[in-house]
Amino acid sequence: MKVYQADPIQDPRWSEFVERHSRASVFHTAAWLKALQQTYGYSPVVFTTSSPGHDLQNGLACCEIKSWLTGRRLVSLPFSDHCEPLFNSNQDLQFLLNSLQPELKPRGWKYLEIRPVCWDFGGMKEFGAAFVPAAGYFLHLLDLGRNSAAVFEGLDKDNVQRRIQHAERVGLRERYGTSEELLKQFYGLFVVTRGRHRVPPVPYMWFKNLIKCQGDSLGIRVAYIDETPVAAILTLRFKETLYYKYGCSDVRFNHLGAMPWLLWKAVSAAKCSGALKFDMGRTEENNSGLLNFKNHWVAAPKKLTYWKYPHASFFDSTDGWGTRAAKSIFSYMPPSLLTIAGRLIYRHIG
Q1: 224 part of a folded domain
Q2: What pLDDT does 336 receive?
Q3: Number of neighbours of residue 274 by Cβ within 10 angstroms
Q4: Which end of the chain is more exposed for a tag (fewer CB within 10 A), N or C?
Q5: 258 assigned to some structural domain
Q6: Are 323 and 286 contacting, i.e. CB atoms less than 8 angstroms apart?
Q7: Is residue 170 situated within a structural domain?
Q8: Which of the 8 DSSP states describes residue 324?
């Protein structure tokens, strides 16, 4: 066997392969990779044992990040909750990773980071000695294979069901789409929410590029009380899975139950169009507030571990905003400065 490289945006074999592979996600798609490239300047690449001119049988999707601030590295994939190595054979994956490892230093890459859902590198002797855990998260996956009534009954009665019913009673109104007006309202709430958590917002251009690249698979839902936007979510759809990627709200109106109401509206619409799974995304192990919120939807989340080779230092942390010092600095910034900081810095922390 040999290891080959393919351009997942230009090579039509990648999109065909992603469509037919059972473990592929929205983060593998050429549309997602193109948005990353256009926004942050990353170079997408797929490593595979399939030779040019033949159908792809496997692939590890990565982005090469070149940063004067944080160095060069391979990440599979930046700003993606997870990215499964699309291999059906342990032997093929082992061969590819063993071939890539000695190539990192000559090519100037500090490390290779992989974000698998199903592959457990710690439980596989052939990988465990080389890769080390880099970060830990929980992944909440809601089964939509049952009828809507059964799905609703499985949600926490006090924290989800009753809040959805309360939102209906108070007369919340929803708008759905990808218009510039909806995006601006979403982003306004997003900036405020990120500032509340002392984190700069993702650049506005990221969402513009996502909308352009994802097309009809992306949707923004905004909830209003009268004419005031009080909460918003952004979801993505790939095959039979709906992905909840971003959410934001005005805390003054949290008592209305707008966030669970919007999520349920998204789930209901997805179910009507044949969705079988609702991916609520990654949550940091120490983010108790978000964990509790998602646990009310999925009581038994899946453990999600990111892996790196070689061992990364403290300053190579996956969570670029996780340090206490960084959050202390950002806590003094007004929203306008936080937005500028996000636009300047995010490309360096992918």
Answers
A1: yes
A2: 81
A3: 9
A4: N
A5: yes
A6: no
A7: yes
A8: H
